[in-house]
Amino acid sequence: MRRVKEVIVVEGRYDKSAVAQAVDATIIETSGVRILSDGEKIALLRKLSKRRGIILLTDSDRAGFFIRGKLRGMLDGVDVKHAYIPDLPGKERRKQSPSKEGKLGVEGMRPEIIVEALKRAGATFEDAKAPPSSAGRLSKADLYEAGLSGGADSAKKRRELLKRLDLPERLTSNGLLEVLNILYAREDSIKIISDCFSVQKVL
After folding, report:
1. Cβ proximity of 107 and 81 under 8 Å
2. Which domain holds residue 93?
3. pTM to 2 decimals?
4. DSSP helix/strand/coil, 84
5. What tens digit of pLDDT does each residue of 118-144 get?
6. Interatomic CA distance for residues 119 and 27, integer angstroms
7. The CATH number of the domain where 117 resides is what?
8. Lowest mean pLDDT among 3-12, 16-25, 98-107, 109-118
9. Which end of the chain is more exposed for a tag (fewer CB within 10 A), N or C?
10. What phi, psi does 4 have (nearest 5°)?
């Protein structure tokens, strides 16, 4: 499976699952049109785009193009690439009936079609045979040691750190780990976490 450098933005969890079967990438859901009123998530996409760039991969129906158009405006000035799936008639397996326009969405696309759509968008494919060294990345063990996962008050501490970093408060520990590894080197993340909680102890 090939790795894509850019962060891929999709509409929902079934789309995310389909893309994850095609490529190794950071994938973020819009939760449909809800992202349009989620300033925190838009700010997160802006942060991630500075390190990785963004690829929008929405359905080819009216709703998908509506979300894409709105995000294009909201992310003005950000490095955004657009991946388009073909218009294929059909119905996803989990659905009882086809969509209003009768087209398959991202979740109904075969992996090779998704890969081809990303290629046409100019996605940066990295060598999957040479994964990045874990030595330079924050680990789950680091979060646990810092009290940000697995503990009784880990959720509270995680929210405090997310607020300090202007990141969405709903990020899980896995989501936090992924975002920190995109935005910062391991030693910088550790310093940020240390500074956050050492300052609070003094207060």
Report:
1. no
2. 3-126
3. 0.79
4. strand
5. 999 999 998 755 455 556 789 999 999
6. 16
7. 3.40.1360.10
8. 98-107
9. C
10. -110, 130
